[in-house]
Design goal:
The chain contains eleven helices and nine strands. The chain is α+β, with helices and mostly antiparallel strands. The chain has three domains: about 190 residues, Four Helix Bundle (Hemerythrin (Met), subunit A) (Up-down Bundle), CATH 1.20.120; about 70 residues; about 150 residues, 2-Layer Sandwich (Heat Shock Protein 90). The strands form three sheets. A five-stranded mixed beta sheet has the order 3-5-6-8-7, with helices on one face. β7 and β8 form a beta hairpin. α1 packs antiparallel against α4. The longest helix is centred in the middle third of the chain and has 87 residues. The relative contact order is 0.06.
């Protein structure tokens, strides 16, 4: 599972829960505000109705006192009636439901009938109107009580709704809190198993590799990114160890290859400086041996220096116009004159093939290829060196009938300081000649191709452009060593 996807999902989930909680809180707050306003209106309606009822009873008392001749002024009664009218109007404005408005209308009608009866009672003896007034008063009070009961019922209904919403809000908050806690716990457990534990494993592997330099493999477990990190570290560690082993092998090979010519030179020097007489023939053979060993040492040191210059980016070409056939001829004649126990055949085109190149470096490449062909071929076999034109390229080919190279060995053929098993058994060397040759060819804008199979020989082909690829001396910049294309 990808760490990025898990973190993205966790953040999205937490954000969604937060959004749901915020939205629920807004909705609940809005509803509670409306419910509060509704309950406040109901309470005010109850209070106004009760005030109306009290004022009405007070009015009835004042009018009774007036009829009995007690000290009550008409203005006091009129003021009470205006007060009742104002309270009734307030009740009408605060009515919210249709049923409440109908009850207010009934109160208004009952109160109007009561006022009519009250007005007529002033003209009639008190005994005759008491029954009708009491009846009108009771009707008005009954309507007012119904209005109060309705407001109380509405307030209770609204209160029950608020209670239900409060319970729902509590449950929702508890659910969100539980989900958040569970999400955090699950995320922490997953992080412990898929992130922290693999990271500690990679850290331990890095420390062990840095302190001991042994072959360590970081555990490839946990999140996808950490598995990729562990895989990259393992590949890097294997590469570093392989490079270390290659360096040790290279040093061992260099020491071995230097010891052989140095031993021969030591023996030759001991022979020449011996006190006994040395024949001219023996001296000539000894000097020839010295010359060959010195040439071998010079070539080995030259390859090492060239490899160092290439890696340092200080490998310069001295370009000039030369004939490719002429360069191949000089190399072939050099090996023919050395009395090689092979048949060297040179195949040239009809006319010259001009190349803008560094002739010394091109000859170095051909020398390396021809030397390898002779080294890894049985005595008496044929080695063909061919020069020909293919389109806008010049091909320099060296074909032998030697031990050949397997497909697996071809992958590392141009890697410096690495030699195949069959090559190590057949002849000594440090394994940098082909890598230097390849970089020289690439510096000229060309490439080397090889086709080979075990027991059937090999063909190395150098392809250089005929047209000038550079107009001034250039440096060969170091780059990654990779197998050249193999053709069949």
């Amino acid at each position: 599972m990808s760490l990025k996807r898990v973190i993205t999902f966790a953040v999205a989930l937490l954000a969604s829960l937060g959004l749901v909680a915020a939205t629920s809180l807004v909705i609940l707050t809005t509803y509670l505000h409306r419910a509060t306003l509704s309950m406040q209106a109901a309470v005010q309606g109850i209070q106004v109705a009760q005030d109306f009822e009290v004022t009405l009873l007070n009015l009835h008392r004042l009018q009774g006192s007036l009829r009995r001749g007690e000290a009550v002024t008409v203005s006091t009664i009129e003021e009470a009636e205006r007060h009742l009218s104002d309270q009734l109007e307030r009740t009408r404005r605060q009515a919210q439901s249709e049923e409440e408005r109908e009850l207010v209308t009934q109160v208004d009608k009952a109160f109007s009938l009561y006022l009519d009866a009250q007005g007529r009672s002033l003209e009639v003896p008190a005994g005759q109107m008491s029954t009708e007034l009491n009846h009108r008063l009771e009707n008005t009070l009954s309507a007012i009580n119904q209005l109060i009961v309705l407001n109380i019922q509405e307030a209770r209904v609204e209160q029950s709704r608020v209670d239900r919403w409060d319970q729902m809000a509590d449950l929702a908050g508890l659910g969100v809190a539980v989900l958040l806690v569970l999400g955090v716990v699950v995320l922490l457990v997953w992080m412990q198993r898929a992130v922290f534990h693999p990271l500690l494993g990679i850290s331990r592997a890095m420390r062990r590799f840095g302190s001991r330099g042994e072959r360590i493999q970081a555990p490839m477990e946990g999140a996808e990114e950490l598995r990729d990190m562990a895989r990259t570290f393992n590949e890097m560690a294997d590469s570093l160890l392989n490079q270390r082993q290659a360096r040790l092998t290279f040093l061992a090979g260099v020491a071995h290859d230097l010891r052989n010519p140095l031993s021969a030179l030591k023996m030759s020097a001991a022979l020449v400086t011996s006190r006994g007489p040395v024949s001219e023939e023996r001296l000539r053979k000894t000097m020839a041996l010295v010359s060959r060993q010195v040439s071998r040492l010079d070539r080995m040191v030259g390859d090492l220096l060239d490899s160092t210059r290439i890696e340092a980016g200080r490998f310069e070409l001295k370009l000039e116009e030369r004939d490719a056939g002429e360069l191949a001829t000089s190399v072939v004649e050099l090996y023919r004159s050395s009395g090689a126990a092979h048949e060297l055949r040179l195949l040239l085109p009809d006319g010259p093939l001009p190349l803008r190149c560094d002739p010394t470096r091109v000859e170095q490449v051909l020398n390396n290829l021809v030397s390898n062909a002779l080294k890894y071929s049985r005595e008496g076999s044929v080695v063909d060196v061919e020069v020909r034109r293919e389109g806008e390229e010049v091909w320099l080919s060296v074909r032998d009938q030697g031990i050949g190279i397997s497909a697996e060995e071809l992958r590392h053929l141009f890697t410096p300081f690495q030699r195949t098993g069959s090559a190590r058994e057949k002849a000594p060397g440090v394994g940098i000649g082909l890598s230097v040759a390849r970089r020289i060819v690439e510096a000229h804008g060309g490439r080397i191709e090889v086709e080979s199979s075990p027991g059937r020989g090999s063909t190395f082909r150098v392809r250089l452009p005929r047209s000038p690829s550079v107009s001034a001396p250039r440096e060969a910049r170091p780059g990654p060593f990779a197998p050249d294309p193999v053709f069949s």
